[in-house]
Structure formats: structure tokens, C-alpha cells
Amino acid sequence: MSRKPYTLIRIPTPLVLLIRYAWALPLLAVLAWANWETPQMHHFVRPAATAIWQLAPLDSPAQAEALRLRLAAEPGVAACAVSLRTGCVALVYHPDEVAPAALYQAVVRFGAHVVSEPPANVGAPVLRECPVPPGYFLLIDRVRFALNLRRFFVTV
């Protein structure tokens, strides 16, 4: 009886491929993580803020429309609405382009009297903060967006 000195074990083909391309598993895992959810809309649009102020009663619809047109022409204002019935002005603006104080001055320059003053700049409330700096979360969010292939199929 003759025995072979070494017997080779036959490894199934899928396992061979898995061992051969093991370096690709972490990359595929990161791509799966980045593409698990659709990209959030804040990556596609600029940040916006709102301001609503109570005005003294306006005289006519023409005056309300003139105020709306004047405020809509201000740089950084995305949308503006003036209600003659309630006497409110509502603004949607981009805070990186214009400050609420500048918008308030534009209303005053028009001649409208603001009944409710804009809120003063107060500091952030004192709360327990996360020990991880917010920059880390922003970095992870940007990396996830950069690797997200679904963003190419989003229409805004």
C-alpha cells in the first residue's frame, strides 16, 4: 500500500475568492455604510433662517406690497411676505449673507414701525455638551456624502 506523503485539501472556489480579495471587504463595507441612506438635503441647499416681526398697522395694500418688494430686493433674502391683515412681516434669509439686524434696519428705513423688537443675541443655553468635538461629526458627514453614490441620482 502506498500512501501519499501530503494530501492537498480542496478549498471551495467561493472561499478562495474571499481569501484572495479580502482587502476589498473593508472598502465594500465603507461604501455600503455611505450608501445605506439617501443623502440629506442640507448637502444640496444653503442654510436658511426665518424672522417674523409684528409691525404697526400698515395703511394700504400698496404700502404692504412696496415693503415686500423692498425687503425681497435686499441681498440675502430668499423670500418675504407681508400680511396687511395681521401686520406681520415674515422673512426667509441666508444668515451667511445678511444679519437679522440689517433686515430690521431695512424695515425701519422703509418707515414701518416694528412693534415686537427682534430678539437680542443671547448666548447658547448652558447644557451638557457631547465630549466629541462637532468637527468630527461634520467630517464624518462630509466623508459619507462624498462616498454616497446615490447623490448623483437626486434632483433638486
Give an account of the 3D structure.
The protein is an alpha+beta fold. The protein has a domain at 49-110: Alpha-Beta Plaits (2-Layer Sandwich). It has 5 helices and 3 strands, in the order H-H-E-H-E-E-H-H. It has helices spanning 13-20, 24-34, 61-72, 100-110, 134-147, and strands at residues 49-54, 77-83, 88-93. The chain has a 3-stranded antiparallel sheet. Helix 2 crosses helix 5 (134-147). It is rod-shaped, with a radius of gyration of 30 Å. The model has no long low-confidence stretch (mean pLDDT 83).
Topology diagram in text:
Layout: H1 13-20, H2 24-34, E1 49-54, H3 61-72, E2 77-83, E3 88-93, H4 100-110, H5 134-147
Antiparallel strand pairs: 1-3, 2-3
Helix pairs in contact: 2-5
Largest sheet: 3 strands, antiparallel
Order of helices and strands: HHEHEEHH
Average pLDDT across residues?
Answer: 83
Shape: rod-shaped
- The percent range for strand residues is 5-15%
Main CATH class of the domain at 49-110: Alpha Beta
Question: How does the helix and strand content classify structurally?
Answer: alpha+beta
Number of helices: 5
* Separation of the first and last Cα atoms: 77 Å
Number of strands: 3
Question: What's this entry about, in short?
Answer:
About 35% of the residues lie in helices and about 10% in strands. With about 160 residues, the protein is α+β, with helices and mostly antiparallel strands. The protein has a 3-stranded antiparallel sheet with strand order 1-3-2.
